[in-house]
Specification:
With 405 residues, the chain is of the alpha/beta class. It has a domain of 233 residues: Spore Coat Polysaccharide Biosynthesis Protein SpsA, Chain A, CATH 3.90.550.10. Helix content is 52%, strand content 15%. The chain has 14 helices and 11 strands. The longest helix has 34 residues. About 1% of the residues have low confidence.
Length: 405
């Protein structure tokens, strides 16, 4: 007996209507799933770090602390420069500590601050190297090369000038080197004090995007990169990649340092002790310019992974869901579901893991932050020029740079 033709049409129409209803929910699934995966990775990581610290308490008592040299490349003044530098001098650490500042010009505005630090902490080995010699287009790496001969110890920490650290920073970071396979230890960073909407956009990005991305990458494939806020490296691992000279042609010297050490066979450890990125008041254009520079740098450094990351961007999911929704009610329900999950996950990150105090105060800013992140991602494919500390560069394949005169 044949099925009546109208019944087939009715069934087909219902399937079509159901698909149109479900399609907006389908397109948000990658972003939704990524938020939940990042939360699972955070829970696993920080729970594991708590067990590691408890297990090391007795071991640390019986081992000698490692002697450490901290290299600080500087150019110009940052917010709270003196306090940032002093935080490295006030460590609860019994090992020997050497602090070497590297500047290119004797007229740099930060030089008097460093000299004041030397006068205030006479019990520390603090040195200032002023050398204008350039070894490549990356001026920061040139400063590191110029200061490196002064480094006395085999554990070398490179840290950006706008970073402040807690009292137990050195104890936490150096503990990883009890594993002889660890060649580099990098640290997560946050910003707890913001100056208006522009800087809040950048700071909330650390909590909502950067830190979750790092934890997911660590869980899925292991760390193959480092973050410039704090990088502690064995001298032997640094020598294995050709020293700082191997980084002079790259803009993302932190990423390259970690990646080259990883490729040389060393393990990269992620330390749970957050360091603080102290940001100064800035306008929106300055923040967006820096975000675009980071985006273009990562695009040329990791082209495949960076392109694929687009499917997890919340704003892209919102845009597609809104366009594909068969009615405003379904579009609103889809976007509400995505942001209910995202707001909950970001709040958990902020309050439980990062502890930066940004959320829930700045939760209302998150949709705008997501929109800007999407447009920054998209714009990164439309050019290869970036600005960095007053100079302009063109990015080459693989992350190398050439200065524009």
């Amino acid at each position: 007996m044949s099925v009546p033709r109208p019944l087939i049409c009715c069934s087909s129409r219902k399937c079509s209507d159901m698909l149109r209803t479900l399609l907006p929910f389908i397109v948000i699934m990658p972003a939704l799933a990524y938020s939940l995966i990042s939360l699972m990775c955070a829970v696993k990581y920080f729970k594991g770090q708590g067990s590691r610290i408890k297990g090391q308490e007795n071991a640390c008592d019986s081992s000698l602390p490692l002697n450490v040299t901290i290299l600080k490349p500087v150019k110009g003044m940052d917010e709270d420069s003196y306090d940032n530098f002093a935080s490295f001098c006030c460590q609860q650490y019994s090992g020997e500590l050497q602090l070497v500042f590297a500047a290119a010009s004797p007229d740099d505005a930060v030089i008097p601050v460093i000299r004041q630090l030397i006068d205030d902490f006479t019990n520390h080995d603090i040195r200032l190297v002023i050398n204008p010699a350039l070894h490549g287009p990356n001026y920061k790496v040139s400063n590191l090369i110029n200061a490196f001969p002064e480094a006395r110890y085999d554990i070398i920490i490179i840290s950006d000038s706008d970073i402040s650290v807690p009292l137990d920073y050195l104890q936490s970071v150096t503990a990883h080197f009890s594993d002889p396979e660890v060649g580099l230890v990098t640290s997560l960073y946050r910003t707890s004090d913001v100056h208006g909407i522009a800087t809040a956009l950048e700071a909330t990005g650390f909590t909502a995007d950067m830190i979750p991305n790092v934890l997911v990458a660590r869980q899925l494939e292991g760390l193959s990169f480092a973050m410039g806020a704090s990088m502690a490296v064995r001298r032997s691992a640094l020598q294995a990649i050709g020293g700082f000279d191997a980084l002079t042609d790259y803009l993302a010297d932190d990423y390259q340092l970690g990646n080259k050490i990883h490729l040389a066979g060393w393990r990269i450890a992620l330390d749970p002790c957050f360091v603080e990125s102290v940001i100064k008041p800035e306008n929106l254009m300055s923040v967006l310019s820096r975000q675009l520079r980071w985006a273009r740098t990562m695009r040329v450094s990791r082209p495949g992974g960076y392109l694929a990351s687009g499917i997890t961007l919340p704003f892209l999911a919102v845009l597609l869901a809104t366009l594909l929704a068969p009615s405003p009610a379904i579009g609103t329900a889809t976007v509400s579901l995505l942001y209910f999950v995202r707001l909950c996950v970001c709040t958990l990150f902020s309050r439980r893991f990062v502890q930066d105090g940004l959320f829930p105060r700045w939760l209302w800013l998150l949709p705008l932050r997501d929109m800007l992140a999407f447009f920054t991602w998209a714009l990164s494919f439309l050019g290869n020029r970036v600005e960095w500390r007053g100079s302009r560069f063109v990015l080459k394949p693989g992350g190398k740079i050439e200065e524009l005169v």
